Amino acid sequence: MGRLQGLVVLVTGAASGIGRATAETLAREGAKVIATDLNQAGVQKVVETICANGFSARAMVQDVTSESVWQQILDDIRVREKHLHILVNNAGIAWAGSILDMSLADWRMQQAVNLEGVFLGIRTTIPLMRESGGGSIINISSVAGLQGSPTLAGYCATKGGVRLLTKGVALESAYSGWNIRVNSVHPGVIDTAIWQTVTPAAMRLEANAVDPHEIASRSTPGGKAGNAQDIANGVLFLASDESSYMNGSELVIDMGSSA
Ligand SMILES: NC(=O)c1ccc[n+]([C@@H]2O[C@H](COP(=O)([O-])OP(=O)(O)OC[C@H]3O[C@@H](n4cnc5c(N)ncnc54)[C@H](O)[C@@H]3O)[C@@H](O)[C@H]2O)c1
């Protein structure tokens, strides 16, 4: 019997990296996973793999910046699964470069995906989670939500926002008796496709240096980048009852890079 047997889970940004590993891991533990992403073919493939392994999932296309799409996703879950117990707000993007080169459009796009997307996810899902008897919300922040990074100032602002949004909602939930725990996860340098969107010039590094392993060799004790499964394991812990006394907490998974 899996640790999440019979629970319904929504994972955003599930076509790739941490979201993919999370969807696969939570499904292996017995959850029914609704995997969403902008990337329709990618998320469909993830779901096909999960189902081929005998577990339960379905895919939906979702842009987390759209308020109306969040509502449609929840309306659909209400009709089909009738319950929702766990939300993993994972979808995210990274814009790297000098603050002097960041256009207002770049700033807003990053805020819209990384911070507003999390806000919309929390606000839209809480009513159904309460009707389902409660649950767990896991917001993927970053070590960049705990400390600054010179070429990632806008990204840091979004991830710091996710950290305190998490704590504010966690307290409101606890005092309101919603029975919903809300925690953030802070990955260090993890080997995923997100690093392909960051150019060496933007990070003021020599060519080819924007490789997670290269970055980790400078920033992480031991010099090794993590993998998506390292983060999915932490998400599983926060999703399960094993973390039932954790609320408003920060789970840092970074091999000590922020220590
Ligand atoms: N990889 C790292 O080193 C690292 C470190 C700290 C935090 N994070 C965070 O982990 C999360 C997952 O990142 P990843 O490393 O797996 O990256 P990734 O690029 O492999 O995956 C991100 C996924 O989000 C999706 N996405 C992007 N914009 C979206 C939108 N508007 N709506 C819906 N889906 C959207 C992408 O299509 C992609 O499938 C992000 O929030 C990221 O900021 C990553």
Characterise this structure.
- The chain is α/β, with parallel strands linked by helices.
- It has one domain (8-192, 227-253): Rossmann fold.
- The protein has helices spanning 17-28, 40-52, 67-80, 104-131, 153-176, 212-219, 228-239; strands spanning 8-11, 32-37, 56-61, 86-89, 135-140, 180-187, 250-253.
- Strands 3-2-1-4-5-6-7 form a 7-stranded parallel beta sheet, sandwiched between helices.
- Helix 2 links the parallel strand 2 and strand 3 (56-61).
- The protein is globular, with a radius of gyration of 18 Å.
- The structure holds nicotinamide-adenine-dinucleotide (NAD).
What structural class do you assign from the helix and strand content? Answer: alpha/beta
What general form does the structure show? Answer: globular
Number of structurally distinct domains = 1
CATH superfamily: NAD(P)-binding Rossmann-like Domain
Number of strands: 7
Topology overview:
Layout: E1 8-11, H1 17-28, E2 32-37, H2 40-52, E3 56-61, H3 67-80, E4 86-89, H4 104-131, E5 135-140, H5 153-176, E6 180-187, H6 212-219, H7 228-239, E7 250-253
Parallel strand pairs: 1-2, 1-4, 2-3, 4-5, 5-6, 6-7
The protein binds nicotinamide-adenine-dinucleotide.
